[in-house]
């Protein structure tokens, strides 16, 4: 999922399996990042409710990458990044899944 430039603001990305099958147990990696926010402000990825949680894993690059000076006031909350659908810490597929740069070592749920 790509969210690009200042006019792409106020989006809510919620309740998705990104880089996995619908069950969230098998990697179906895309060629790049799971979610890439570039110079876009005020977007929400996930949320405080379980139904808003995204499973972001198995991607070939970052799970979530937010960059650019205009990418302000974005919220990443309640997602499982780099894990299976249960958030057990078991990685699904390969690649770097994290919500920051540089990525910390190993998979970890983002809560």
Mind explaining what this structure looks like?
The structure is a single chain. The protein is built from no helices and nine strands. It is an all-beta fold. A three-stranded parallel sheet has the order 1-4-7, with no helix packed on it. It has a three-stranded parallel sheet with strand order 2-5-8, with no helix packed on it. Strands 3-6-9 form a three-stranded parallel sheet, with no helix packed on it. It is globular, with a radius of gyration of 13 Å. It starts with a strand and ends in a 30-residue tail after the last strand.
Give me the Rg, rounded: 13 Å
DSSP helix count?
A: 0
Strand content: 15-25%
Tell the overall outline.
globular
- Encode the helix/strand succession as letters: EEEEEEEEE
In terms of structural class, how would the helical and strand content be classed? mainly beta
Largest sheet, strands/sense/barrel: 3 strands, parallel
Instruction: Please give the share of residues in helix.
Output: under 10%
Mean pLDDT: 82
Low-pLDDT sequence parts:
107-111
Tell me the span between the first and last alpha carbons.
20 Å
User: Can you count the beta strands?
Assistant: 9
Strand order of the largest sheet: 1-4-7
List keywords for this structure.
111 residues; 3-stranded parallel beta sheet; mainly beta
What's the arrangement of secondary structure elements?
Layout: E1 2-4, E2 12-13, E3 17-18, E4 35-38, E5 44-46, E6 55-56, E7 64-67, E8 75-77, E9 80-81
């Amino acid at each position: 999922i790509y969210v690009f430039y200042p006019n792409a603001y106020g989006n809510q990305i919620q309740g998705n399996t990104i880089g996995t099958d619908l069950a969230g147990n098998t990697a179906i990696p895309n060629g790049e990042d799971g979610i890439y926010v570039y110079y876009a402000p005020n977007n929400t990825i996930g949320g405080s409710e379980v139904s808003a949680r995204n499973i972001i894993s198995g991607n070939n690059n970052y799970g979530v990458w937010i960059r650019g000076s205009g990418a302000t006031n974005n919220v990443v909350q309640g997602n499982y990044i780099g894990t299976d659908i249960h958030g057990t810490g078991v990685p699904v597929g390969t690649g770097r899944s994290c919500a920051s740069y540089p990525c910390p070592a190993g998979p970890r749920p983002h809560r």
